[in-house]
Amino acid sequence: MHKLSFLAALCLACCSALTISGCSFYPSGSSGPSAGVTVAQSTDLGAIGSNPKILGRDGGYSGVFAGYAVWLYGDTFLANPNAEGQTLISDSWSFTSDFNAQDGITAFQEREDSAGAPTMLLQLTATEQAFNAAHAGNPCQQQPCGARWALWPGAMVGDPAGNRALVFYQIVSAQPGNFNFQTVGYSIATWQNFADLPQRPTINPTAEHPDLLFSENQPSFGSAALIAGDTLYAYGCYTSLLSVACVLGRVDLGADVTDLSQWTYYAGNGNWSSKLGDAMWVFTANHILNVSWNDYLQRYVAVYNHPLSGDVVIRTAPAPEGPWSAEVTAFEALQPAAGQSPVDDAQAHPEYNVNGGQTMFVTYTHGTGPFTSEERLVSVRLQLAPASTQ
Asked: Quick check: 10 pLDDT over 90?
């Protein structure tokens, strides 16, 4: 859902105008050094556990906090109205103590409101709530009916040393009509206590959106994120003719991660710059992906699907900034039901790795019908490539 209509429209328009194939100004996925790995086997393990009170949702980022695997989702359709009379909420979450994915993932829990409906993890401000209430229903108090502010979670990383989790998110202006979304910026919420909820920061008190760290014209930082040592790394991606090029930023966890003056960006050739404009893309991927350290490979691994495609692929690198390898195909996702959106959110969940990551577990949203979906789980067993081929 997140940027699908924009990607599709841009690709179709530009490819028609330019009569080009591939819709890309960036190198293809076959560019780069050898990944040093092959996929020995991939196995569809079915849909992960779900709550019948939830009809469908997408996103599916995960992270570990307070002993739980926490899963984060974007727009979520509810089977019954919540306490505010809504059947659509802009984010939702589930958590489980099941860290064994070899036989599926179950025992998910949700926090529920007074109507027994699943609740949002990221909370709207009073101003955002008032806007949504004024535009709710048809007729509504204020035109256009159906306009709303939405909060879509991105990557989540647990920071045990800081006794917290960091949740990336974007603020979205959703207008009436299918896939009529516009991101207005990106930020990071801090989650200090599992019994409470993540807190959105106040960065610029006089701004229309005082919590935004990055603007709508900057890369989507939080497309993927990881912690290595005492450093938070975040990948931000942007689109050019359907190639999703990603840059990399980093910040010391001992600093204020919502202070942009503390951030630096990979500028190529081993250099880091305090200026985002100096950032060089490190790979092409998708707006939703996972990057993690893999003990089995002794490399970092990126997992994602090609935009508007069910092709799920991996890349590897010796460092978060690369150099990143050529893609290796992991598996082909199931085709969605007729009329439903293509796969948009394949990603790995390294907290479930087996044998140091020789077997990884990947999910993606599979559209099953209008406003309904399931989260498919696939195990991917890796094999180190012979040294002569690396």
From this structure: no
CA atoms in the 13 A half-sphere facing the CB of 96: 19
Contact 95, 21 (CB under 8 A): no
Within 8 A by CB and 6+ apart from 30, the residues are 326, 327
197: helix, coil or strand? coil
Residue type (1 letter), 258:
T
Whole-number Å distance between alpha carbons of 1 and 14: 21
DSSP string, 80-122: S--TTS-SEES-EEEEES----BTB----B--B-TTS-B--SS
Token pair in block for residue 13: 């328009």
pLDDT of residue 178: 79
Q: In angstroms, rounded to a whole number, what is the distance separating the alpha carbons of residues 77 and 216?
A: 26
- How large is the average pLDDT for residues 135-162? 95
Tokens found for residue 347: 């990603």
CB burial string 328-351: b at 16+ within 10 A, e below: bebbebbebeeebbbbbbbbbbbb
Q: Tokens 């599709």 belong to which residue? A: 8
DSSP 208-251: SSTT-SEETTS--TTSEEEEETTEEEEEEEEEETTEEEEEEEEE
First to last CA, the chain: 37
- SS3 percent helix, strand, coil of the chain, rounded to 5, is 10, 45, 45
Residue 54 dihedral angles phi and psi, to the nearest 5°: -110, 120
Cα 350 to chain centroid distance, Å, stands at: 14
pLDDT tens readout for residues 171-215: 999 999 877 889 999 999 999 999 999 999 999 999 999 999 999
Q: Is the peptide bond before 118 cis (omega within 30 degrees of 0)?
A: no
Over 60: is that where the pLDDT of 323 sits?
yes
Helix, strand or coil for residue 54? strand
Which domains does the chain show, CATH number per domain? Answer: 4-389 (2.115.10.20)
| Joined tokens for residue 244 | 């999703």
For residue 275, count CB atoms less than 10 angstroms from its CB and return exposed for 0-12, middle for 13-18, buried for 19 or more.
Answer: exposed
